[in-house]
Amino acid sequence: MSDDAVSPEEVRHVAELARVDLADDEVDQFARQFADILDYFETLDEVPEVDREADLANVMRPDEVRDTLEREEALQNATKTEDGYFKGPNVS
Amino acid sequence: MAPHESSFVTDIEPATEHVAGVGIDGLAPYRRVVTFYPHQPESRVMTAQTVQQGDLVTVIGLEVHVQLETDTKIFCGCSTEQTDEPNEHVCPVCLGLPGALPVLNEGAVEAAVKIGKAIDAEIPEETRFHRKNYYYPDLPKNFQITQYDEPICADGELEVAVEGTRRTITIERAHLEEDPGSLQHVGGGIDTADYTLVNYNRAGTPLMEIVTAPDFRSPSEVRAFLAELEEVLEYLGVFDAERDGSLRIDANLSIIPEDEIESGDIDDIGSSALETANRTEVKNISSHKGAQKALAYEETRQKNAIERGRAVEQETRHWDESRGITVSMRSKEEEKDYRYFEEADLPPLRVADWKDEISIPELPSARRERFQAEYGLDEESASKLTSTKQVADFYETVAAEFDPDLAATWVADNLLGELNYRDMEITDLEGRLNEVTRLVELVATDEITAKNARETVLRSMLDDERTPEEIVDAEGLGKTGEDEVQQAVVEAIDENPDAVSDYESGDDGAINFLVGQVMQKTGGSADPGDVNQLLRAELEA
Amino acid sequence: MSANIFITEETIDGVEDGPLADTTVAVKDNISTEGILTTCGSAMLDDYVPPYDATVVSRLKDAGATIVGKTNMDEFGMGTTTETSAFGATENPAAPGHVPGGSSGGSAAAVAAGEADVALGSDTGGSIRCPAAFCGVVGIKPTYGLVSRYGLVAYGNSLEQIGPFATSVEDAAATLDVIAGPDDRDATTREPPADGESDSSYADAATGDVDGLSIGVPTELLEGADEGVVDTFWDAIDDLESQGASYHEVSLPSVEHAVEAYYVIAMSEASSNLARFDGVRYGESGGYDGNWNETFATARKEGFGDEVKRRILLGTYALSAGYHDKYYKKAQDARAWVKQDFDGVLEEADVLASPTMPVPPFERGESLDDPLQMYLADANTVPVNLADLPAISVPAGETDGLPVGLQLVGPAFGERELIRAGSALS
Q1: Domain residue limits at C156
Q2: Is C83 inside a domain boundary?
Q3: How many angstroms separate the CA atoms of B107 and B71, rounded?
Q4: Active-site residue numbers of C?
Q5: Contacts of residue C324 in chain B, CB cutoff 8 Å?
Q6: CA torsion C253→C259→C260→C262, rounded to 10°?
Q7: Which residue intervals of chain B bear CATH 1.10.10.410?
Q8: Interface size, chain A vs chain B, as Cβ–Cβ contacts under 8 Å
Q9: Which site in A60, B131, C225, C390 is 20 to 30 Å from C362, CA atoms measured?
């Protein structure tokens, strides 16, 4: 990757992937900051490939029913609910 | 992969070549670029010229999502029991509350290993989970825990019979993942609703995603494969066909001109022909019959377009079962970047040795063959008797005690016939199968006639829930025992002195009257010839 | 001026008797407490009330502890000064006008100010050790997998642990005794391997006996550090030497890449861990105008502060198609290298020592304009998280009247070694 600043388009694309709305001046500010930070991350290129082994494996629980939440508890923090359902925006 | 998702744009290292099949060695991670056909946004017009030169070959691959029959969800201890009440089986984990963590259900892993065994797949030394990141209201964490390039099963196969020929379908991989929740669109269809109601009961249900190679050449092959797959999964006890949403199929279909196939062999399409072909994804199929209809429709639609020189778009289409058509979902075609990375909250699995430790029942096709060999049954009977594992199991208990042919008639023809008529399954007789065996015994030992058994007893058993003995007694169906006949003979003689004296004075015909009386007493089930002789013996004594 | 230590002050009594009866505990506000507001220092969760307790909270209650409140923190754990909190900054009781460190600044300050006997914080890249150093108290970051994270709102889930603050090493160790141990709700926890000491408690290890202790000092972690901090550090080492310990220099070449590797991994994980905040089940809602993409984006725009947005975006970028190998994969390689390096030097030393932070506590407001500068301040702490190892920060003295912390790093599950050595300096 070259020394070019991260473009505002790239920032917008990433913001869309991350579902975070940004104001125009935020886009510009982030673009500048990202360039510095990503530049700094460049040195990772120098790192050799190293193999990793997991410390743990095969952690499982038995197929047995365990305590669940009461519906009111599950719904208690939702801004809007309807008849026991969570209300969500439309998905068109 | 959720039904609303379009698949295939998942490679994070842009693929320059199609990786058709992958070998696994114990140490190298299973590397597979998860595309059959790299994403090609431009449509390709098949010119009329090309078509004239040869036939069009239909090439189909499947992605099948199967809900596994475990008691609890894949990453938490919530029940998977069906319920009409929304958000009843939920907890911090499957709701995606802040701070909750997944813990893997051993039962789901066992089910996966059983499936792997049944399809002869490799289970690698180490397998792990990844996060697939995308946003949707039915996805509590806005990422799905799934398996990416190290799936639990790889390189399996399943043999299917289509119109007499047997074909082997390659199953490239099968992996575990969690189901999202369910959405209800309020105030319109999916495109026009005002808002959505979300129910997380289903969120976290274990799924097995089974991906085939593009080996199918016709919609009927697809149907046969799916029917066989369902049967195998039911035999394994990991799947319930009756359960809503337990089977979801996405199919990919391409029409390829025969002369583009380098090898000239339609079973060996080759990567470049596949890559350049358009492929359509068809979603929202939920049964093997639906798959055949959807793909037959799609195949025809595409062939017609090609033959008229029209463009076939590379796109995703939605199968509308009620209208019998596929509908374009083109508006959903976006480049999807799932940003896969390892799920650090779940340590890897080393379960290759589970394949040896976990046993699976004899599979349907093997059982069919054995039934033919061992019990001397014809193919059709063997097929009926292995239609479900429970039927096959029951048949074998009956055949162990009685003549296999008799058992076959009783189970395949009589029992299944009566059950089907009443829209019942053999599982509805759980706990009562010994009564059916008793019924067969009554017939085998000549205690009642086959006709009575079939027409009266069995039907009453099913409709009135009475035992065979109860019915036989109530209806007086017993083929009467010798003592009873003798008793009736004696009684008839006592009660009809006139007929007796007629007989004694030389009227031989009077005995018929007495036979009639005895027959009446025994409800018509005694043998008239025997009765005649017994009367004479008694009278001459 | 109020110290702004707590976001919520509320008393929750534990059971009557137990090892922590008569002990008051302040709990960082990213640790779930049933029925009590848990905000993570964010507007996104400013009215979120968890319906369940974190495992560590249950264990505290079962040990008889009294919880006195939820403490202020950098938003979602992202920060080194507690200034990114949506609820305002926290004063450093040991250094007025200066930051208390972060992200567990509130917890460290609560202990330093005597508002609680002990406190719980979380440490993803130094978030316990940094505030412990800046506030002049003891803080322990356990070995990854020793303490359950069930109920800890995730930021960097492969890096973080919950750990205790206290004014003495022994008290911190006693708290660790209560919260440590495997949890079947956290698949990454495990039982420490059995060794000669496994039967004794962590509190019992606070003997201060450092006779024969071999200390490795990684030269890279002293480079570029503030002179006053370095002097104070060596004074502390002298103190340990006078009690029978010895030190030698070691080299950890991999730590040069530790900060980048840490941030790439932490930000990548954060971008995924924070994706769940969409307003449907909890948190700031984006309303119902428009479709889910729009409403989610609105909720998150309004609920998250700048630093959180920055890290989510960078993390998304590092994982995205075309960049995954360059950043995320390379960062994992760097991590493996760091682990290897630490394992190597710990074969030649009982513990490693360094200044906890390369600088004394910042002045309030000093660090906020330059995020990259802030990230670099974590240079001494992040390698430990990458290596999954335990570490303790103990007060080492002062420079210009500002607290300086000494960091000791141990081998995996070597908390007792750290507690023994750290208690020599009290």
Answers
A1: 6-209+353-422
A2: yes
A3: 8
A4: 28, 103, 127
A5: 12, 339-341
A6: 110
A7: 482-540
A8: 124
A9: C390
Longest dimension (CA), chain A: 57
B196/A54 CB distance under 8 A: no
- Cβ of C154 within 8 Å of Cβ of B99? The answer is yes
Q: Chain C neighbours among B 92-131 (CB < 8 Å)?
A: 92, 95-104, 131
Cis peptide before C103 (omega within 30 of 0): yes
The domain tally of chain C equals: 1
Q: Closest partner residue to A89 among B107, B109, B196, by Cβ?
A: B196
Q: Counting beta carbons within 10 angstroms of the beta carbon of residue B162, is it exposed (0 to 12), middle (13 to 18) or buried (19 or more)?
A: middle
Quick: pLDDT tens for B157-208.
998 887 778 889 999 999 999 999 999 988 877 777 888 999 999 999 999 9
Q: Name all chains with 3 or more CB-CB pairs below 8 Å to chain C.
A: A, B
Structure tokens at B132: 């697939």
CB burial of residue B464 (10 Å; 0-12, 13-18, 19+): exposed
Percent of chain C at pLDDT above 70?
A: 100
Q: What pLDDT does B36 receive?
A: 37
**Closest CA of chain B from C220, distance in Å:** 29
**A62 pLDDT tier (thresholds 50, 70, 90):** very high
Report the alpha-carbon distance of residue C396 to residue C226 in Å, rounded: 15
> A91 vs B183: CB contact, 8 Å cut-off?
yes
Q: Which residue of B has its CA nearest to C282?
A: B97
**CB neighbour class for B117 (10 Å; exposed up to 12, middle 13-18, buried from 19):** buried
**pLDDT for residue B49 is more than 50:** no
Confidence of residue B457 (pLDDT cuts 50, 70, 90): confident
pLDDT of res. B54: 63
Which of residues C402 and B277 earns the better pLDDT score? C402
| CATH number for C56 | 3.90.1300.10
Distance CA B368, CA B380 (A): 10
With a cut of 90, say whether residue A75 has pLDDT above it: yes
DSSP, res C185? T
Q: Give domain status of residue C121, yes or no.
A: yes
Which pLDDT belongs to residue B389?
83
- All domains in chain A, ordered by first residue: 3-44 (1.10.20.60)
Q: Which chains touch B (3 or more CB pairs under 8 A)?
A: A, C
pLDDT digits (tens, 9 = 90+) for B351-397: 999 999 999 999 988 999 999 999 999 988 898 888 888 889 999 99
Chains B and C form CB pairs within 8 A to the count of: 108
DSSP C227-253: HHHHHHHHHHHHHHHHTT-EEEEE--G
pLDDT at B47 over 80: no
Distance from the Cα of A28 to chain B's closest Cα (Å) equals 24
Per-residue pLDDT of B283-310, as tens digits, reads 999 999 999 999 999 999 999 988 888 8
CATH classification number, B482-540, choose in 1.10.287.1080, 3.30.200.20, 1.10.3720.10, 1.10.10.410 = 1.10.10.410
Q: Report pLDDT for B134.
A: 95
pLDDT for B406 beyond 50: yes
